[in-house]
Prior knowledge:
Layout: H1 2-21, E1 29-43, E2 46-58, E3 62-73, E4 76-91, E5 94-105, E6 110-121, E7 125-134, E8 139-146, E9 149-150, E10 155-166, E11 178-190, E12 196-207, H2 209-217, E13 223-234
Amino acid sequence: MIQKILIVLISSSLSSAVFSSEMEDDPLLAKVMVAQFETRMTDFSETSAVLDAQAWLGKDLNKLWLKTDIEFDNDNVGEAEFQALYSRAIASFWDIQVGWRTDIRPEPNRNWAVIGLQGLAPYWFEIEANAFIGDDGRTAARLEAEYEVLLTQQLILTPDFEVNVYGKDDAATGTGAGVSDLELGLRLRYEIRREFAPYIGVNWTKKFGQTAQFARDEGIASNDLQFVVGIRVWF
């Protein structure tokens, strides 16, 4: 099923790219954004590292997006997710995105077809809303939101939010049906340059329902408050 969906998505992407290439006044552009590259500390004995990065290549209406979210725990990869998406502008500040997501960690690997929206909501909230369809009747959804508060021209406070929902239990990967987990963050960055900004902050995560029970069975806390130190880079 996923393979058929991907073939349709890739064909649509190629046909759109050909049409776009005919527009001489629409240059090919690219951007790489490392939104979070940070160390998270519950206390000085428990630390983890997180990489949240995106890159896109394309023109005004059509782009190829690559996204990755990796968490290292005790020098091991605890979670790793990659997405490859075709993005099409459908309104001012809004794109529809379709493509493929793979979860490398935790094992076993899970693959999903993706459809979602990304853009700026009223009052300049950055929003990502995605639905996922996997093998064996698996489904999931994710909502992410971020807002920037300019304290000065260089000092910026950023609250962010993420919630994941799954259609059914998946004991092999430790995810339960319903609202699976919630993450809230608050980061204060200083832009030495617009393209380079170190930051500090706090990050709170909580697991719910069967996901929390799976975590407790593995001796893992169902909620955690962490102090974070990191850098944000784009070019």
